[in-house]
Amino acid sequence: MSGEQGTGKTLAVFLVGIILTGTIFGAAVATGADRTAFDGKYVSETFEKEGVDAKITAEIRADVAENISAIIDEKPVPQGVTVTLDGETVAEQSITEEFVRTEIDRSIIELFAFLRGDHDDLTIIIDLVPVRESVSDAVIDGIEIDTPTLVGSNSDQLDAEQIAQLRVNESQYQQAQIELSAQEREEIENELEANVQQEIDDENEGFVAAVLSHQTTVLNGITGEITYEEYIEQLASDEQRIKEEIAAAVVDEIPEQELLFGDDEDPESELGPVAAVVQWGATLAWLFPLVSIGLVGLIYGLTRSLDQTAAMTAGALLFAGVSGAVTGLLLRPLILGLVGADEQDAISEGLVAVFDGTLRTIGLQSAVLAAIGVALLVIVLADRRGKLESVRKKLGSR
Q: In 13, 67, 168, 353, which residue has its Cα 20 to 30 A from 118's Cα atom?
């Protein structure tokens, strides 16, 4: 009967030892992941270190530069309007790496707040509204308007030099004025409108209206219907409006936001399983160590032997540590090769780097556990051979 009890106790201790090995291995994995892949700050720092923000900045700049070039090439402007724009230069000035890094960090913070259950909704985007504003300003600064050419080229009845004279000073303004009958004025207006519509051939009604308003101002000035001060003020307003309409056409090609992690319509639903893993990982990061301590206590309760408890704990630490070290360090290149086998974009490359850091951390933590297991095992063997008898006596005397 006692033999059966002894066998049962031995089996129980053995099973507890196996479970202890599993919980120690699980603790290494959970704490490693919680410190790396499940930590927003670590992800942000890894992204910056791997140059993810620089790559995304380059991608956004390329898209914006392409849009600007397309507008300049595909949408003609009338004579007298010169667009001195370099799409790449405008994109580089308008989209800084610091801005993109800030947006990525903000999105990562929001992402991990959702994954850890702090928020129910999720918005992981780069807000391009400030970029649109910067591009608009850059485009406006890169446009030159030659009023005499813009108006004079569209009418055989108006002289470009005479139009230029209007702007010199009030005296020249008055000298350049001419008299037109209502019919002559109407003919010139119709001529200007027809030529502008043909030259621009644009669906942007705002741009056409801005050019026509500008030409009307010149007509009002050359016929003396407004004062010199009113003419200068209105002319500046019209020229600014033309620039803004061209800038608006460019900005319309730039989206207000860019998705940072894929194009899922319902990120909350798509990332729900990931959130569950992260939240469970955070729980297991402290639960596994506590359970391991409890199992060590259970082994002692079953064996009533410090020596046997220490030996089994050492074995569990050594086996779990070696397993984690092999997985996180030796097999890391193979695992990373499988994970990053396909061609990666900037975000995917950053996530692979995060996973690499997680494996390294798990491997290093496991190596430490294995070293502790070896040290504890050495102590147990030394004690069994009586090598620690002097130490025991000293401790006992104290």
A: 353
CB 363 within 8 A of CB 320: no
> Sign of the C-alpha dihedral, residues 377, 380, 383, 384?
negative
Residue 353 shares a structural domain with residue 277: yes
pLDDT band at 4 (very low <50, low <70, confident <90, very high): low
Place of tokens 């813009």: 150
338 found inside a domain: yes
Residue 19's pLDDT is what? Answer: 95
pTM > 0.70: yes or no: yes
> Residue 369, SS3?
helix
Strands 81-83 and 125-127, sheet pairing = unpaired
For residues 188 and 219, is the Cβ–Cβ distance under 8 A?
A: yes
Q: Quote the tokens at residue 211.
A: 């050019």
pLDDT(264) > 60: no
Indicate whether 247 and 277 sit together in one domain: no
- Give the span between the Cα atoms of 81 and 89, in whole angstroms: 20
pLDDT given at position 169: 92
Spatial distance between the Cα atoms of 171 and 28, rounded to a whole number of angstroms = 87
Encode pLDDT of 214-232 as tens digits: 989 998 988 889 999 999 9
Q: Is residue 107 part of a domain?
A: no
Give domain status of residue 6, yes or no: yes
CA distance 218 to 215: 5
* β partners of residue 82: 144
Per-residue pLDDT band for 1 (boundaries 50, 70, 90) equals: very low
Tokens of 170: 């009030």
- Cα(238)–Cα(282) distance, rounded to whole angstroms? 61
Runs of H (alpha helix) within the chain: 2-35, 40-49, 52-74, 87-94, 97-115, 129-141, 147-152, 160-165, 170-175, 182-200, 205-222, 228-251, 267-270, 272-303, 306-325, 332-339, 346-384, 389-397
Q: How many CB atoms lie within 10 A of CB 7?
A: 10
Asked if 238 and 210 touch (Cβ cutoff 8 Å), the reply is yes
CB 100, CB 298: distance < 8 Å: no
Domain that holds residue 19: 2-49+270-384
Q: Say yes or no: 149 and 241 in one domain.
A: yes
- What tokens were used for 286? 């402290």
